[in-house]
Design goal:
- The protein is an alpha+beta fold.
- It is 29% helix and 23% strand.
- The chain has one domain (13-157): Alpha-Beta Complex (Nucleoside Triphosphate Pyrophosphohydrolase).
- Strands 3-1-5-4 form a four-stranded mixed beta sheet, with helices on both faces.
- The longest helix is centred in the C-terminal third of the chain and has 16 residues, at 147-162.
- The radius of gyration is 15 Å and the shape is globular.
Length: 163
């Protein structure tokens, strides 16, 4: 959050992500935005996805469409990419991606607790991904991620252990 304190776990996606969108509006003005989610099952496993032809793992999420709220984009992307919904969100951090060869954009990282264990969570992949798996935190430590994903996962783990 703006004062440096960890964000509260919230059950109202629109309130929490609306506040996050308002707080980051000076930074994100005029930039394309995305939202990526660290989704944690009831048995504390994290959903990761893989895009066709890629070896690395991805977090569910994607772009915020013009005129769309961050909350609407979050819920839409989870439904489109995994066929799931959640009623909670916890902001982790924001990242300004300014990588040569890629369009500059601001990525909001969010964590959410799913209401089922990994084995009971039904995932319906879109054409954007061809594989998914739930990983324990120990297994995640052995995987390689982009630094911004790694930071989001590390923050989510720290917050989960604190709650």
């Amino acid at each position: 959050m703006a004062d440096g304190s960890p964000p509260p776990v919230a059950s109202n996606v629109f309130t929490v992500l609306g506040q996050l969108q308002d707080e980051s509006s000076d930074i994100t003005k005029g930039l394309p935005q995305s939202v990526k989610a660290v989704l944690i099952s009831k048995d504390n496993k994290v959903l990761l996805m893989r895009r066709p032809g890629e070896r690395g793992w991805d977090l569910p999420g994607g772009g915020v469409d013009k005129g769309e709220s961050l909350a609407d984009a979050y819920l839409r992307e989870l439904d489109e990419e995994a066929g799931i919904s959640t009623d909670n969100a916890m902001p982790l951090y924001g990242f300004l991606r300014d990588t040569p060869g890629k369009k500059k954009k601001y990525i909001h990282y969010v964590a959410a607790k799913l209401d089922k264990k990994a084995a009971k969570t039904k995932i319906k992949l879109s054409a954007e991904h061809d594989h998914y798996a739930f990983f324990s935190w120990e297994d995640i430590e052995t995987l390689t991620f982009m630094p911004s994903y790694k930071k989001a996962l590390d923050i989510a783990l720290t917050l989960m252990r604190a709650n």
